[in-house]
Design goal:
By secondary structure, the chain is α/β, with parallel strands linked by helices. The protein has 13 helices and 8 strands. α5 links the parallel β5 and β6. α7 crosses α11.
């Protein structure tokens, strides 16, 4: 089997490394010649190939590039790939890409998916086998994917050690706005806030920053090239989640400013319940 990975960075590269044993050859495609060269050097892919050529020999195509580029690329891939090939995407927004190919004659060959894993790092050097182990993969519009396409995608995710959830593209984007996209907005905003306040005192930030601050702003190091189009594509749900967060933040501000200690204590206790929610 030939697996073609379009985008050899953290996600695509880690999928390639984790899929060893599922394939006979992994072919890399990347707009960056430097990234592709590094991916070959690191053994992430076996060889590089131009997109047009790679699509013609692919059994499974993994699109792992920024969501705006993926949305524009997918129709032409479906146009040119073999009838028995399968293409999946790994994007963090689903409504846009699903809408782009909903009426495509080869829609059944496409599995809209979102493997929920990652780090704040990017590029081929950030990729590692095991990134997806015990994580969740979300598949959207399952009913529009053919049985053989779905089976191939599920085989891949099983090999990666992931469990699979199914939902509509709309529900995915709505929920992911709160549990992922809002988190990144908060991290970026906190980073900018601290840098603004401490403009001339950066050294003090690093001297005083504790593990709580470091863990909160860790994802502020995530790629702007990846996250800007995600925010744009999910603007409808993300802005709603930001509004909700601002309301909660203002409530905390009021409790603190008015020294309403008992209410503040109760709100923090309520927030502590998140550990039980995350445990299921």
């Amino acid at each position: 089997m030939n697996i073609v990975v379009i985008g050899t960075g953290l996600i695509g590269g880690s999928m390639a490394l984790s899929a060893r044993g599922f394939e006979t050859k992994i072919i890399g495609v990347d707009a960056s010649e430097e990234n592709l060269k590094k991916a070959i050097e690191l053994g992430i892919v076996d060889m590089g190939m131009p997109l047009e050529q790679a699509v013609l020999v692919a059994d499974l195509i993994i699109i792992s590039i920024p969501v705006d580029a993926a949305r524009e690329m997918l129709p032409s891939i479906l146009d040119t790939m073999r009838d028995d090939a399968v293409v999946i995407d790994t994007g963090s927004t689903k409504a846009g890409i699903c809408g782009k190919v909903r009426n495509h004659p080869r829609r059944g060959n496409f599995v809209a998916s979102h493997p929920m894993a990652g780090t704040e790092f990017s590029g081929p050097t950030a990729a590692f086998a095991g990134l997806f182990k015990d994580k969740k993969a979300i598949i959207c519009e399952k009913e529009l994917s053919s049985d053989f396409a779905l089976k191939r995608a599920l085989t891949l995710y099983k090999l990666l050690g992931m469990s699979v959830l199914y939902m509509s593209a709309e529900d995915h984007d709505k929920h992911i706005a709160y549990v992922s996209h809002l988190t990144h907005v908060i991290a970026y905003a906190l980073s900018l806030t601290v840098q603004e306040i401490e403009k001339n005192e950066e050294k003090k930030i690093f001297e005083m920053a504790g593990s709580g601050f470091a863990s909160t702003v860790r994802i502020a190091k995530s790629s702007s090239a990846m996250w800007t189009p995600i925010f744009r594509q999910n603007a409808r749900f993300l802005t709603k989640s930001i509004d909700t967060y601002i309301d909660v933040l203002n409530h905390f501000k009021q409790l603190i400013a008015e020294d309403r200690t008992d209410e503040l204590y109760n709100e923090i206790k309520e927030a502590n319940r998140i550990k039980d929610v995350l445990k299921g």
